[in-house]
C-alpha cells in the first residue's frame, strides 16, 4: 500500500536524488535477502528505512554504498542511480567523492585514535590544505559541541553516543550531500539519541544534507523523517509520508506499540493477515 501519490515526481529534477530500482541482493551466491526493493530519496529530505532486525535495512544501505562486495553480497537485479547516474559499479571512494557517505551500523570509530584524529581520517578524499582541514573540523564541532570537548580523548574510551557522533562527524568531513545512516540509536542512551536526531535534523535543514536513515526505532525515526519505507523480509511492505505512517493504525499497532493491547510481535499471525491486506 502506498500512502503517497508519487514521491518520484517531485524529486525528478533534483540533482542529489537517490533512486534504488527494484534491486535483488544475494549473499554467498545463494542467500536471497532483498527481493526487489525500490526507494527514492529526494534532495534535502530525510527518508527513514524501517523494519525489524533482519528485515534487510543494512543490506539495502550497503548495496547503495557498494560495500556489499566486502561481504560476498551481489546485486543480481535492478540498479541504483545517484544524481541521475548509475552508481552500482563504483567503488565506495568514488561514491564518497560524488557526495554520498555511509555511517555504518555499530558506530565505527578507530578506538585507538583521538576523536579529532578520527574526524581527520574522514577528509581523505578531499585533499584539503591545513586551513581547509581546520575549517572542516570547526564545522563538525559547531554541530557536535560534545566532540569539541572530547577532541583529545581516545575514541574507544568515549561513550556510545559520542562514538556515534564521531562516526557521523567523520562522514561529514567528506562534505557529503547525502548520508546513509545505519541505526544511529542502537545501544545509545535515550537522551543522546534525541540529541543525535536533533543534530541530523539541523544538518538537513542548515547544510541541505539528505539522509537515508535505517532504524528499528520507528517512533523516533518517524518524528524526524519526511518519508518512510517499512521493510519486511527483504520487501517494502508499506511506504508513505512520515506523518501518515505515524498515524496509520497498522503502523501504530505493529511498529509503534501504542495500541491498547500493547506491543505485538512482528511475527504475530494477525500481522501477517493485515500485511496481506496492505499488499493487496
Ligand atoms: N554477510 C551476510 N551473509 C549472509 N547473510 C547475511 C549477511 N548479512 C546479512 N545477512 C542476512 O540478511 C538478512 C538481512 O540482514 P540485514 O540487512 O543486516 O537486516 P537489518 O539491517 O534490517 O537488521 C538477515 O537475514 C541476515 O541474516
Ligand atoms: Mg542493520
Automatic annotation (TrEMBL):
An MF annotation (GO) of this entry: branched-chain amino acid transmembrane transporter activity
Keywords: Amino-acid transport, ATP-binding, Cell membrane, Membrane, Nucleotide-binding, Transport
Domain ABC transporter as annotated: residue spans: 18-258
GO biological process, one term: L-amino acid transport
Pfam families with a match to the protein in the record: ABC_tran
Alphabetical list of PROSITE patterns matching this protein: ABC_TRANSPORTER_2 (PS50893)
Coiled-coil region: none
Name the record gives this protein: ABC transporter ATP-binding protein
SUPFAM superfamilies in the cross-refs: P-loop containing nucleoside triphosphate hydrolases
Domain of life the protein comes from: Bacteria
Alphabetical list of CDD domains matching this protein: ABC_TM1139_LivF_branched
InterPro entries: AAA+_ATPase, ABC_transporter-like_ATP-bd, BCAA_Transport_ATP-bd_LivF, P-loop_NTPase
Family as reported in the entry's similarity comment: Belongs to the ABC transporter superfamily.
Amino acid at each position: 500500500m502506498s500512502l503517497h501519490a508519487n514521491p518520484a515526481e517531485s524529486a525528478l529534477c533534483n540533482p542529489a536524488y537517490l533512486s534504488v530500482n527494484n534491486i535483488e541482493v544475494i549473499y554467498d551466491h545463494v542467500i536471497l535477502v532483498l527481493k526487489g526493493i525500490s526507494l527514492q530519496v529526494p534532495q534535502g529530505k530525510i527518508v527513514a528505512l524501517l523494519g525489524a532486525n533482519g528485515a534487510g535495512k543494512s543490506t539495502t544501505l550497503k548495496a547503495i554504498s557498494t560495500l556489499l562486495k566486502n561481504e560476498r553480497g551481489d546485486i543480481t537485479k535492478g540498479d541504483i542511480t545517484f544524481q541521475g547516474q548509475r552508481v552500482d559499479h563504483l567503488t565506495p571512494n568514488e561514491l564518497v567523492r560524488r557526495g554520498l557517505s555511509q555511517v555504518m551500523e555499530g558506530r565505527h570509530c578507530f578506538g585507538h585514535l583521538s576523536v579529532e584524529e578520527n574526524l581527520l581520517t574522514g577528509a581523505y578524499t578531499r585533499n584539503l590544505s591545513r586551513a581547509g582541514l581546520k575549517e572542516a573540523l570547526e564545522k563538525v564541532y559547531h554541530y557536535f559541541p560534545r566532540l569539541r570537548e572530547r577532541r583529545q580523548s581516545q575514541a574507544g574510551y568515549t561513550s556510545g553516543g559520542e562514538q556515534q557522533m564521531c562516526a557521523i562527524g567523520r562522514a561529514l568531513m567528506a562534505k557529503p550531500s547525502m548520508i546513509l545512516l545505519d541505526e544511529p540509536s542502537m545501544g545509545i542512551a535515550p537522551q543522546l539519541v534525541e540529541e543525535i536526531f536533533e543534530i541530523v535534523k539541523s544538518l538537513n535543514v542548515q547544510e541541505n544534507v539528505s539522509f537515508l536513515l535505517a532504524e528499528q526505532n520507528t517512533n523516533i525515526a518517524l518524528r524526524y523523517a519526511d518519508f518512510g519505507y517499512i521493510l519486511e523480509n527483504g520487501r517494502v511492505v508499506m511506504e508513505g509520508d512520515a506523518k501518515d505512517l505515524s498515524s496509520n493504525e497498522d503502523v501504530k499497532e505493529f511498529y509503534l506499540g501504542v495500541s491498547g493491547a500493547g506491543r505485538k510481535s512482528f511475527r504475530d499471525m494477525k500481522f501477517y493477515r493485515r500485511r496481506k491486506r496492505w499488499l493487496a
